[in-house]
Write a structure and sequence with these properties.
Elements: H1 5-11, H2 18-21, H3 25-34, H4 38-51, H5 58-66, E1 75-76, E2 79-80, H6 82-92
Antiparallel strand pairs: 1-2
Length: 94
């Protein structure tokens, strides 16, 4: 799978010290979006829509997320859900 550069750049905002800057994940998502050009947001939306289309299992989505520039994951072991986190990100992208 080819991950769009725009998505890789977007995920770089998901860094390990986010909790020092934002009270929750929503604040981090909003900040990442605010630093992303609208045309790049559209590419990210399309990519997330593809990821959430049902073609990928939770385990595959986790592998894809881990192959990005994100330093943090919305899941650990069997806890958490990459699917739900991607849905949350998508809900912030108009």
């Amino acid at each position: 799978m080819v991950i769009p550069e725009e998505f890789l750049t977007f995920t770089a905002f998901f860094h390990q010290d986010f909790d020092l800057l934002f009270p929750n994940g929503e604040g981090l998502i909003e900040d990442a979006i605010s630093h992303t050009k609208l045309e790049h947001q559209n590419i990210i939306k399309s990519f997330i829509d593809d990821l959430l289309s049902g073609k990928f299992t939770e385990d595959e989505l986790r592998m894809i997320w881990r192959s990005t520039r994100a330093e943090i994951s919305p899941f650990r072991g069997t806890e958490g859900s990459c699917t739900e986190f991607l849905k949350l990100i998508r809900s912030f992208l108009a």
